[in-house]
Specification:
single chain; mainly alpha; 7 helices
């Protein structure tokens, strides 16, 4: 299921990039980055040292969007809804959705021509 792939691969990769931006560009400590992201320091350390979430590599454009999100999160770091909103925004970028679909297709060969994630007629619920 795409949602399982998102939880296992996409969201951790976004957290990884956010942690890197917080630490490398905004000079936050691992403890501060962990606090902002709602993670343990150990998790942030694993992200920084490529021991976790290393399967997904984002393009420069996506990394730039993550940097925008990092700025927004830091500007409002006591508001956990900001973190949720930015994680959601990044995960719904078309390029990120395409990465999710590529992983799903690679894991499920019968989905070679699947386009469910981008087919509006399938996504629309009729009541």
């Amino acid at each position: 299921m795409p949602q399982e792939i998102e939880v296992r691969y996409i969201l951790p990769a976004i957290r990884r990039e956010l942690a890197k931006v917080f630490i490398n560009e905004h000079k936050q400590s691992q403890k501060q980055a962990a606090n902002i992201l709602g993670l343990t320091e150990a998790a942030v350390s694993q992200y920084i040292h490529s021991k976790r979430a290393k399967e997904v590599v984002f393009s420069e454009n996506i990394v730039n969007e993550i940097k925008v999100s990092a700025d927004r999160i830091l500007a409002d770091k006591n508001n956990k809804q900001r973190l949720i909103a930015e994680m959601y925004r990044i995960s719904n970028l078309t390029t990120v959705r395409q990465i999710l679909c590529d992983i799903h297709r690679a894991q499920s060969k019968e989905l070679e021509h699947c386009n469910v994630c981008f087919d509006e007629s399938v996504l629309t619920i009729k009541t």
